[in-house]
Each structure stands twice: as C-alpha cells, then as structure tokens.
C-alpha cells in the first residue's frame, strides 16, 4: 500500500478482555516498530522487528503484551487481559533498509480505550 | 541505555516569535538524530534529520544542528506561524542493538495569532 495501515482505528473494550491490533507496513520495508502514546505522554517504544532477526522486545511493559510479524510483513500486537492503564494510541511505523538515515513512516494509530 | 530528553511543554508563542525547543541525548557511538512533528489530528511525520556531527538538518524554516560536544540537537525557527502549532518529538536512531529509534517525550507548541 501507499502508507502504513493500522486497524482498527478505534477499539473500546472491557477490562480483562484480549485485543489484537494490526499493522500493515509499507511494501518492502523490513523494519517495523510498535510504540505507545498515552494522553499527554511521549512515544514509548514497545517492540522492533528487523527482517529475520529476533525482535527487540525490550519495551514491552508486561507479559500481557506480545507481538508477532508473519512473513516479514504484517504485524499483530496482542494485549491480554487488558487493564485501564493500557488505554492509549498504539502507533506502528516501518522503515526501508535502503534509507540510510532510518526515517520512520508512521500509521494513523489504533486508539484503545479500556473501560 | 540510549535516551532522549527534551524540554517540557507546552510552549506558547506569538506569531513571528523565535522558537527554540531543546533536545539532548545519551547514546553509544554516533546515532542519527531526528525531529518529528505531529500536527493536530494527523500522524507523525519526519521534519528534519542529521546523520553526523555538525550536520544541520532543515525543513519548512526549521533548523537543528547535530552537536556532539554537547550531545544536543536543538530545534529552532526564526519566525513561527499559527500553522506550526503541533507536538514536536526529538528522536535518535541507535547505532548499536539493532538500530532502534527512541523518542523524547514531545513538546507541544501553541502559536497565537
């Protein structure tokens, strides 16, 4: 596609439910990132995929959070047993290896509200 | 670990005022440095970048110079406009640990007419 696509754009769920957020990066971009942006807060790094390398999961806040990337393209971020503090905008970004500067291209985000 | 610190906002300026948003970093090696901008209701987009010491990134009247001696990358604009109202994020791309990009907390800028 022309840009990074994320779905759903908005998700309202009840505390304790599981949610899945999807990211479809720009075609050919081998690097994919997930960030979390809470109200009034900056971008919190969650996880980073680069090609076939093991992902950098150092930013995942708890074991309720996991992510996978299938076939080096689409990624899914899963939050199990959601809590109210998980409410935030989850941003996905991708990057092309040929871009020496490593510019990130962001999706519009998935806004998660946990009631 | 690598990190980015930027001045807290919000910053409120009158139109045509001079803008400085401070950004300092801690990193191993020689990271690439970026400023991203998030306009109201829009996604993040790259504003400018610098890949090595003393490089100056510029775009839309904004400038930032990569200062290794002070580990800084301050954003400046000589005359802001109402349309510059947005949240500005300083970021670095690490040179170790897989080229991860780390962001600062963001600085919200309000420009009054």
Walk me through this protein's architecture.
The complex is a heterodimer of chains A (115) and B (113). Chain A has no helices and ten strands. Chain A has strands at residues 5-7, 10-13, 19-24, 31-37, 43-50, 65-69, 75-79, 88-95, 105-106, 110-114. In chain A, the strands form two sheets. In chain A, strands 2, 4, 5, 8, 9 and 10 form a six-stranded mixed β-sheet that branches. In chain A, strands 1-3-7-6 form a four-stranded antiparallel β-sheet, with no helix packed on it. Chain B has 113 residues and is mostly beta strands. Chain B contains no helices and twelve strands. Chain B has strands at 3-6, 11-14, 19-21, 23-26, 32-38, 45-50, 56-59, 62-65, 75-77, 86-93, 101-103, 107-112. In chain B, the strands form three sheets. In chain B, strands 2, 5, 6, 10, 11 and 12 form a six-stranded mixed β-sheet that branches. A four-stranded antiparallel β-sheet of chain B has the order 3-9-8-7, with no helix packed on it. Chain B has a two-stranded antiparallel sheet with strand order 1-4. In chain B, 37% of the residues are buried.
Biggest sheet of chain B, in brief?
A: 6 strands, mixed
Q: How many angstroms does the end-to-end distance of chain A come to? A: 33 Å
The quaternary structure here is heterodimer
What global shape of chain A is seen?
A: globular
> What is the largest interface, and how many residues per chain?
A-B, 23 and 21 residues
Q: Report mean pLDDT of chain B, rounded to a whole number.
A: 93
Q: Helices and strands of chain B: which structural class?
A: mainly beta
What are the segments of chain A in which pLDDT stays under 50 over at least 5 consecutive residues? none
Instruction: Please tally the β strands of chain B and state the result.
Output: 12
DSSP summary: helix tally of chain A: 0
The proportion of residues forming helix of chain B, as a percent range, comes to under 10%
Radius of gyration of chain B: 14 Å
Strand content of chain A: over 45%
């Amino acid at each position: 596609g022309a840009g990074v696509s994320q779905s759903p754009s908005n998700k309202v769920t009840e505390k304790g439910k599981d949610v899945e957020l999807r990211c479809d990066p720009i075609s050919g971009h081998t690097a994919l990132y997930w960030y979390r942006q809470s109200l009034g807060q900056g971008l919190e790094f969650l996880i980073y995929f680069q090609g076939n390398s093991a992902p950098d999961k150092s930013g995942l806040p708890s074991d309720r959070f996991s992510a996978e990337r299938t076939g080096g393209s689409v990624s899914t971020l899963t939050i199990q047993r959601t809590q109210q503090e998980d409410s935030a905008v989850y941003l996905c970004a991708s990057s092309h290896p040929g871009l020496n500067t490593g510019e990130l291209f962001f999706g519009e985000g998935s806004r998660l509200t946990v009631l | 670990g690598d990190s980015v610190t930027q001045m807290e906002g919000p910053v409120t300026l009158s139109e045509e005022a001079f803008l400085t948003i401070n950004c300092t970093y801690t990193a191993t090696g020689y990271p690439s440095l970026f400023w991203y901008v998030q306009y109201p209701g829009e996604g993040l987009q790259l504003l400018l970048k610098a890949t090595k010491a003393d490089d100056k990134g510029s775009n839309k009247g904004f400038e930032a110079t990569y200062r290794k001696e002070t580990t800084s990358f301050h954003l400046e604009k000589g005359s802001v406009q109402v349309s510059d109202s947005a949240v500005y994020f300083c970021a670095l791309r690490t040179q170790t640990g897989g080229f991860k990009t780390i962001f600062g907390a963001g600085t919200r800028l309000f420009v009054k007419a």
